[in-house]
Amino acid sequence: MVTLSDKLATLMRPEILFSSFAPVTSLTGIGPRLAKLVAKAAGPRIVDLYWHLPTGIIDRRFTPKVAAAPEGQIATLTVKVERHYPSPRHLKRVPYKIRCSDETGVLTLIFFHGRPDHLEKLLPPGEVRLVSGKVERYVGETQITHPDYIGALEESASLIAVEPIYPLTTGLAPKVMRKAVAKAIDCAPGLNEWIDAAYLVQQRWEKWRDALTAAHRPQALGDLGPETPARQRLAFDELLANQLALALVRQSARRSPGRAIAGDGRLRNRILAALPYRLTAAQLAALNEICADMATPEPMIRLLQGDVGSGKTIVAFAAMLNAVECGGQAALMVPTDLLARQHFKNLAPLSAAAGARTALLTGRDGKKARDETFAALAAGTIDIVIGTHALFQDEVAFKDLAFVVIDEQHRFGVDQRLALSTKALSGDGGGLRPDLLLMTATPIPRTLTLTTYGDIDVSRITEMPPGRTPVETRAVPIGRVDEVIAAVGRAIAKGARAYWVCPLVDEADLDLAAAAERHKTLSALFPGRVGLVHGQMKADLRESAMAAFMAGETQIVVATTVIEVGVDVPEATIIVIEHAERFGLAQLHQLRGRVGRGTEAGSCVLLYATPLTETARARIDIMRQTRDGFRIAEEDLRLRGSGELLGTRQSGLPEFKLANLEVHGELLQAARDDARLILERDPTLSSERGGALRVLLYLFERDAAIRNLRSG
Ligand code: ADP
Ligand code: MG
Q: Is there an atom of ligand 1 within 6 Å of 568 CB?
């Protein structure tokens, strides 16, 4: 699918990169069939082959004598061809054999379905040939079946070499992949240097193209490590693109002046006094930090981090009231309708008590209601709006948007976050940039914050509200699901409420099938008391299913992971997670956070299919040991290694193709500092190095940032 941003990228991509972004079919020898396999292993474009680095080597420089060639190893042998033994005419299944030898012994070459004319040309009797392949011993004989290479002695230079091993996919021959990558690298353009000259010298790095070539031509195992100069340079390039893109976004956000927001506290005080609880010290500290930042005239871009259930919403709401106290408007944006409604339901009464006017805006509103909301936002008769992506619609205009909060921010792209804050520029705010608060429950370690947001200010809520009830976590093999169902049955007979989360499968349809199936079996046992909520349901049905559960009309809700983020039903005390082994740690933690929010103790049952992989077992063990989100995040990182943060797509963290943050942490710092310096000296990237840096951004597909540069 070609998206608008793909199109824009194509339009503006520098010409020197055209060939790099061509499909792999533009390589000779790669037709549509092979292209599919290459795309599966590496990606569909030439540039994907650049980043497809080898993971091993085959050393054909190993040239033992026949008698000394160890079984099972790849070796290159120099032998004299003696005699051909073609397959008997009527027994094609008997292989074609060729007897060769050196002074130490006999080597038999085996070819199934060998073509005599071809083999006679390749291996003429009486001649000396180099033969490379895996050595086998069969009934005392030394053999090579289908040698990888056969050549004359003159070809030894090209044959007796070290070959890179690339990650493959079923049906893709190593040779095809190797050739494709080699061709891609051969045609890679020489690009102007974007790394600071002094730094390049200090690091003793080569030019980009040379580093790329070196990374793909390992000569020894040691050349495959992330610390080699070539791989370091490539990792730095990627990190620099990442940091520069973020710095550009930030620069454009900061270009228009912000506003000093310092309300008199009258609305906030009323609300905080009316709450049935007191804010924790951690919540107050975060709120104070946010308000102090809002009070400065620079536009705020701040991340509010707090574990699931730590009470971020009320903190954000108080900050929104701060904006309203100053006569501005505030918007709270969330990723799903469900969450928007839940927040609205919880916050509207508080707003009303404070005298702030609140509205809900989602994609599901009827036209009339929507038009009314639009009009009220433009007229300024609404102070606070809570909504989904619908807030991005072109028709949405604010009278004076002063403050934007984005909840569960990882569900939104950087572009979207900025789009909303740009809205303000069309209002009465006089082109002042609203302050922006991003909220996340993903406890992101510092390095990852840097790669996700660049230099962002962070407030953390580091303690939980008091009175949180413990959640007992148990792991049960799926074979004992009947016992779990019986236990849930006993609990709901006493009035409990339970979530039943169904397995995460790649395709949404399968998710659905599993959830529907489970819903059927549970409904049969507990008629009328089981609801179903999944992502593909019509929103109003999902809504009413969720509402019925919140109201206690149903007591079990079978759900796909749509309940993962933010849903708050304090009465729910049980969560069963089916096929827990398929979930990442962060997700399990999020899901479990749905229970243990009320006064009753909670329980979490992790149903797993056997046999468990080692990692899955470790994940489940960690879940049983701790509820501390930061600890869980760290363990998660350790289990996966940040080199392949498998769950990153779910958590919204950027994925790197070349950089491995565990090894390249220092390079990240350097890239951050460099990006800052670059924009200080050349904010429009117009110098010669600036031009090279633009190419870098395109090369790593951070070109959205360049659009910031243009429109900014
Ligand atoms: P999250 O940080 O996961 O978004 P919420 O803001 O949804 O958490 O808060 C979780 C629950 O905790 C809500 O029901 C909220 O009313 C409650 N809560 C928030 N702050 C406190 C507090 N200081 N004391 C007691 N309960 C609180
Ligand atoms: Mg929340």
A: yes
Ligand having the closest approach to the CA of 346? 1
Nearest-atom number in ligand 1 for the CA of 346 is: 16
Residue with CA at minimum distance from ligand 1 atom 12: 311
Give the Cα separation of 64 and 652 in Å (integer). Answer: 52
Q: Are residues 529 and 418 in the same domain?
A: no
**Protein residue with least CA distance to atom 24, ligand 1:** 465
Q: Are residues 68 and 135 in the same domain?
A: yes
- 433 in the same domain as 503: no
Residue with structure tokens 């990723």? 335
Same domain, 361 and 337: yes
Distance between CA atoms of residues 687 and 679, nearest Å: 11
Tokens 């399990």 — which residue? Answer: 588
Residue with structure tokens 């070349």?
A: 658
Q: What is the pLDDT of residues 241-281, one digit of tens each?
A: 999 988 887 787 677 777 899 999 999 999 999 899 999 99
In this structure, is residue 652 part of a structural domain?
no
Cross-strand partners of 474: 605
pLDDT in tens, 663-696: 888 999 999 999 999 999 999 999 999 999 999 9
* Domain end residue (candidates: 601, 626, 651): 626
CA 17 to chain centre: 25
Which of 486, 481, 437 shows the shortest CA–CA distance to 458? 437
Same domain, 383 and 508: no
DSSP 8-state secondary structure symbol assigned to residue 470 = P
**pLDDT at residue 98 above 60?**
yes
* Residue 227 domain-assigned (yes or no): no
pTM reported for the whole predicted model: 0.69
CATH code of the domain containing 507: 3.40.50.300
Q: Which domain holds residue 424?
A: 266-461
Tell me how far the alpha carbon of residue 308 lies from the centroid of ligand 1, in angstroms.
Answer: 9
